[in-house]
Amino acid sequence: MALNKSLRTVYLTLLAVVAVLVIAVGSVFAYPLAGIILTLCLIGLLAAANWRPLMSAVLFVVAFVVAIIHPELTSLIDILLAPIMCLVVACRLPIIHTVWFVPVITVLGLFDTNQSAWITDPVAVSVWVVVLLLAVLVGRIVRQREQVRAQMAENYRRRRAELARALHDSVAASLTNVIVRAEVLGLKQAGGDPEKELQLRAIIEDSRRSMGQVRELIRVLESSDTESLEREFTPAEAVFSDEYRRLSSHGFDVRANTAPSVVLTTDARALVEDFVREVATNIIKYAPAGSAVIIHHVVHDGHYLLEITNDTDPVPEHTDQDMSTHRGLRDLSERAAHLGGRLEAGARIGQWTTVLELPA
C-alpha cells in the first residue's frame, strides 16, 4: 500500500533532516566514518522502502546485523531507526512480512553489543517489545487509512466515468440532434424570412457552444489525474465578447463600459466567466426581447464589481419551473463566498440586477 503524496513528502523530509543531523553530529564529535556511513545506509533504506519495501526490509536486517557485530560502529540512532522500519513494513507490506520482520528485529535489538550477551532485564525487554508493537500498530492504522482512501478514490473515479457516459449518451446526443435539425431547418429557410434565419443561426451557435462545454466536462470527468487536474479557460475578454454577441443575436440592446484592467486569481477569473454566461442565459430565457442590457465593470477599494442589469417582463412567458434548474446562481454564489466575495440578485422597479463582487 503506497503512501499518498503528502505523507510521503513529510516522511522523506524527516529522514533527510535526520541524515543531515547525523553527518553534523558525527563530524563535531569525531565519530568513526564507517559508523556514519552505516547509519546513513540505514536511513537510506528507510527512504528506499517507499518504492521497494520488501528489498529494503531485508537489506535493513543485514545492515542491522552488521551494526550488532561491530559495536564500535553502532550508535543510539541505529537502534531507534529499527522501530521506524517496523512501522514502514507494517504499513507498506502484507501482514505476513510483519510476522517475520518484527521478531527478527526484536531479537537483534536485545543483544547487548558492549557485553556481547543477550539482555535479560524484564523492564528493558518489555520496553523494547512495547516500542516495536506500537510502531507496528501505527503502521497498520496508516495502512488501513490509505486503503480506505484508495477505495474512495476508486469509487470516485468509477462514479466520474458513469457521469461522463451519461452526459455523452443523453446531453451530448440531444445537443447533436438540435444542431442537425436546426441546420436542416436553416437550409429550408434559405432565402426566406431573415428573422427566422437569424434565430436559427443563434440556436446553432448556442448549441455548438454548449456542445463544446459538454465535451470539456466529459474530458474532466474522464481524467485519471485527480490531484493535478487543471482547467484551461478562455480569456475573459473573449468570453465577454462572445456573450455580448449572443445577447445581441437574440435582439437585446447591450450597453457595456470598458472592462478595467484587473488581476484575478484563476478561480476568480473562472467564476467571472461562468457568471457572465449564466446571467446571459437567464436574460435570454426571461427578459423581454429587444430590451436593454446594461453591463458595468468597476474596481474600487481593492474589489472588482461586475453588475448586469436587464429589464423584466411584467407578464413572463415562462416560469422558473419551466426553464430553471434552481442551481445556477446559487452555485455561483457559493463559489463567490468561498473566494471572499459575494453574489446578489434582485428586482429593482421593472429591472433585474445581478451583482458579482470579488477581491482584486
Describe this structure in words.
- This protein is an alpha+beta fold and 360 residues long.
- The protein has 11 helices and 7 strands.
- Among the domains are: 5-120, no CATH class; 236-360, Histidine kinase-like ATPase, C-terminal domain (Heat Shock Protein 90, 2-Layer Sandwich), CATH 3.30.565.10.
- A 5-stranded mixed sheet has the order 3-4-5-7-6. The protein has a two-stranded antiparallel ribbon with strand order 1-2.
- A hairpin with a 3-residue loop joins strand 6 (342-347) and strand 7 (351-359).
- Helix 3 (53-69) packs antiparallel against helix 4, helix 3 (53-69) packs parallel to helix 5 (95-109) and helix 6 packs antiparallel against helix 7 (194-222).
- The longest helix is centred in the middle third of the chain and has 68 residues, at 122-189.
- The protein is elongated.
- The protein starts with a helix and ends with a strand.
- Mean pLDDT is 81; it is low at 226-235 and 318-323.
Class computed from helices, strands and strand pairing: alpha+beta
Tell me the name of the CATH homologous superfamily of the domain at 236-360. Answer: Histidine kinase-like ATPase, C-terminal domain
CATH class of the domain at 236-360: Alpha Beta
Number of strands: 7
Give me the side-by-side strand order of the main sheet: 3-4-5-7-6
Number of helices: 11
Query: Which shape, going by the Cα principal axes?
Result: elongated
The N- to C-terminal Cα distance equals: 44 Å
Work out the oligomeric state of the chains in this entry: single chain
Query: Radius of gyration in whole Å, from Cα?
Result: 33 Å
Element-by-element helix/strand order? HHHHHEEHHHEHEEHHEE
By CATH, the architecture of the domain at 236-360 is named: 2-Layer Sandwich
Taking the sheet with the most strands, its summary is:
5 strands, mixed
